[in-house]
Amino acid sequence: MLLQAKRTIKEADFEVRFEQAQGVKLLKHLPGDPRCRNIRGICVLCDQPAGPGRICRQCRRILPWNDIFCECCGQAINAVQPHGVVCIACESRRPRFEIARAPLIYDFPVDAVIKAIKFKRQLWYVPAFAELLLRTLKTEFAGVDALVPVPLHRWRQMARGFNQATELCRPLQQATGLPILTQAARIRATSAQPGLNAAERKKNLKDAFAVSGELKCRHPLIVDDVMTTGETCSQLAMTLLKAGAESVSVLTVARALGHL
User: Fold this and answer.
1) How far, CA to CA in Å, does 155 sit from each of 40, 53, 152, 185, 194?
2) DSSP class of residue 258?
3) How many helices (H) and strands (E) does the chain have?
4) pTM
């Protein structure tokens, strides 16, 4: 109980510092200001000294890390399983991709930051998340030969002004030299996924993606901000496989809970 109380106090303190820092950033810079993407030495979450990275040690301790997960889909699980044992969802229906990984769980403050990137153009968070993705990419995906940002339909991208998945891919490309594949497109304007169950998501995404021309990679890595049920990535992976990919993997910043 004492440990739980201490953790609750830490999280409450962190939430206060996080909210204060967001107000400071909004006063200093306009959303989407490119200067915000190069603030080194300052934590993007609390505006305190961060050391060598973009997230300070104290904030790293509070982040919801996805440390124990299904070896297939990356869904957080309660206990480490023997090699080859997957979660119930993957056991009943294997996804089209080979493996998926996410360094974080979609919980506070990760959920707040992802929403700030997508809906408030607060792109200064992107390099910090890209640092976490790069670490996972190097340890889990040595065989990939291209990055594939999950495409938005052109209408949604025009309305938003950018694709958050593409923004996450840019630092990864710079660090690894992997090309960003632009052949994949979302050819059908699908409904927003939040609020849909697994069956509705599958129906919503059917035939939503297409690949133009000859695929220029063998093992593409799909990159996105968050994976919920995995249906978007599975449908995109199926499209890439039909276009000639030998294998497809997935890397996202966060994995949502409660979708086993």
Assistant:
1) 34, 35, 8, 12, 18
2) S
3) 9, 7
4) 0.83
Strand stretches in 68-155, DSSP E: 100-101, 104-105, 146-149
16 CB-near residues (< 8 Å, 6+ apart): none
| 105 SS3 class | strand
C-alpha 173/C-alpha 105 separation (Å) is: 24
Give the bridge partners for 252, in sequence order: 224
Mean pLDDT of 80-90: 87
Three-state secondary-structure class, residue 208: coil
Domains in the chain: ranges and CATH:
1-62 (no CATH), 64-255 (3.40.50)
User: What digits encode the pLDDT tens for the residues 101-126?
Assistant: 999 999 999 999 999 999 999 999 99
Cβ atoms of residues 165 and 76 within 8 Å: no
d(CA 166, CA 145): 16
| Residue 5 CB neighbours (<10 A) | 9
